[in-house]
Every structure is written in C-alpha cells, then in structure tokens.
Amino acid sequence: MDTTSTLPASPAGPEAGLPDSGPTPVKVWDRFVRFFHWSLVSCVLLNQFVLEAGETAHTWTGYLASALVLARIVWGFIGSRHARFADFFPTPQRLRAHWQALRAGEKPRHLGHNPFGALMMLALMGLVLALGVTGFLQGTDAFWGEEWLQDLHEGLANTLLAAAGLHALAALVMSKLERVRLVRAMVTGIKEFH
Ligand code: HEM
Ligand code: HEM
C-alpha cells in the first residue's frame, strides 16, 4: 500500500482533513528532523565557505555532517510518522504518480516530502556521505597526496552546493505553488495549508 500522505481534496480523517477556507496547521516535522536539517546546512556552508580546506576544523565538521546523515538514516526507521522512509521513499510508483499528477495540471500537496523532494534529499545525504569517505581517504597512507581523490572531493563538494541551491529554490517555488510555507515549516515543524 502506498502510505505517502497526499492530502485528499475533501476531509478524510483527523490529520488529513482540510477545510475549504482558512489555514490548517499540521505538525509535520519532529524536533530531530529540524535540528538535523539546519545543523547539516551549517556544517556544509562552514566547510564550503568558512573553514580552511583540509584543516582539523574542516575535517571534524565534515565528520559531524556525515554523523548527522547516519543518525537521520536511523531516524528514518524509528522517527515520527513523516520522518520515516516508509512515508516518503521515492519508489518508481510514487514518482510516476506524482509526475502524472503534475502533468495533468494538478497540485498534489503532501504532508511530508513529495517524491521529487525525497529524491533530492537522498542525493544530498549521499553526497555528504561521499564527502566524508573521500575526505577520510585523503588522510590515509594509501591515498595521501592523490590528486584524483582531491579532485573527486572537490567535485563532490561543488555538486553538493549546486544540488542544495536547486533544492532551496525548489522549496521556495513549491511553497508558492502549494501555498504552504515549506521553509518556515522546517523551522517550526508545522505546515499551514492556505
Ligand atoms: C560536508 C562535508 C564536506 C564538504 C562540503 C567539504 C568541502 C571541501 C572543499 C570545498 C574543499 C576545497 C577543495 C579545493 O578547492 O581544493 C575541501 C578540501 C579538503 N577536504 Fe573537505 N569537505 C567535507 C568533508 C571533509 C572531510 C570529512 C574530510 C576529512 C576527513 C575532508 C578533508 C579535506 C581535505 C584534506 C581537503 C584538502 C584537499 C586538497 O588538498 O586539495 N573534507 N573540502
Ligand atoms: C547545504 C544545504 C542543504 C542541505 C544539505 C539540505 C538537505 C536537506 C535534507 C536532507 C532534507 C530532508 C529533511 C529530512 O527529512 O530530514 C531537506 C529538506 C528541506 N530543506 Fe534543505 N538542505 C539544504 C539547504 C536548504 C535551504 C537553504 C533551504 C531553504 C531555502 C532548505 C529548505 C528545506 C525544506 C523546506 C525542506 C523540507 C521540504 C519538504 O517540505 O518536503 N534547505 N533539506
């Protein structure tokens, strides 16, 4: 059964129900998801723009980012409803249904992540883990001074930055289309549907 929480057109159940008018606040993101998100953003931005590449602070900030992602993966199995992979994992079936709905001019609204957003989320987390691994390898005897590894690390960092930019832009565009402040929801945990 597809458990993605797409909001129905008419009220169906205590959480999904949307009245015809007025904002409907729904608690969506738990404390850990919000802490995870903004801590991860801070780590990535610090390593990209503030901390000296390869220095101790850079190394530990990178490891912290990787640890956050690993913790988020665990949370994806035991966390609150919309934090769970089962709620949003972008299966081919969900991706197809979402794509078809968009092409049909519908505006499917999801309580949790929509399937495209979920795909990007997984890509962002994978990139952070890959940066952790390539960063670690650069410090090992076997790969010390290997230029291709440094280039790979740099390439991954640039890809992450570009993907995060696209992700942030998508969050703003989807907020307009779905008439819900997604960025604010990642701060407060509450989505208000208008
Ligand atoms: C969020 C994770 C990370 C990001 C965004 C990140 C980003 C970057 C960036 C932008 C550079 C500069 C590349 C260049 O212009 O040469 C760099 C270099 C470097 N990073 Fe990371 N990094 C991360 C994690 C790590 C980790 C976990 C380690 C080590 C354990 C690490 C070790 C290094 C080293 C040694 C360099 C210098 C490479 C060189 O000499 O060119 N990084 N990183
Ligand atoms: C390095 C930068 C960033 C990274 C690595 C990143 C990563 C992520 C990840 C992994 C998630 C999934 C959250 C979860 O379920 O635990 C997420 C969600 C989200 N992010 Fe980011 N993010 C970044 C920057 C931003 C920025 C700058 C914004 C604001 C404009 C933003 C807005 C959001 C929003 C609104 C969601 C929830 C989307 C939804 O409602 O489905 N992110 N982000």
Calculate Rg over CA atoms.
Answer: 19 Å
What's the CATH topology name? Answer: Fumarate Reductase Cytochrome B subunit
Strand order of the largest sheet: 1-2
Q: Would you tell me the overall average pLDDT? A: 89
End-to-end CA span: 28 Å
CATH architecture: Up-down Bundle
Overall number of strands: 2
Task: Summarize the entry for a quick read.
The chain has 194 residues and is mainly alpha-helical.
Walkthrough of the structure:
- Helix 1 runs antiparallel to helix 2 and helix 2 packs antiparallel against helix 5 (115-138).
- The protein has one domain (24-93, 105-193): Transmembrane di-heme cytochromes, Chain C (Fumarate Reductase Cytochrome B subunit, Up-down Bundle), CATH 1.20.950.20.
- The chain has seven helices and two strands; from the N terminus they run E-H-H-H-H-H-H-H-E.
- The protein has helices spanning 31-50, 56-78, 85-88, 92-103, 115-138, 147-178, 182-188; strands at residues 24-27, 190-193.
- Mean pLDDT is 89; it is low at 1-20.
- The relative contact order is 0.15.
- A two-stranded antiparallel ribbon has the order 1-2.
- The protein is mainly alpha-helical.
- The protein starts with 23 loop residues before the first strand and ends with a strand.
- The chain is 63% helix and 4% strand.
- The protein is elongated, with a radius of gyration of 19 Å.
- The structure holds protoporphyrin IX containing FE (2 copies).
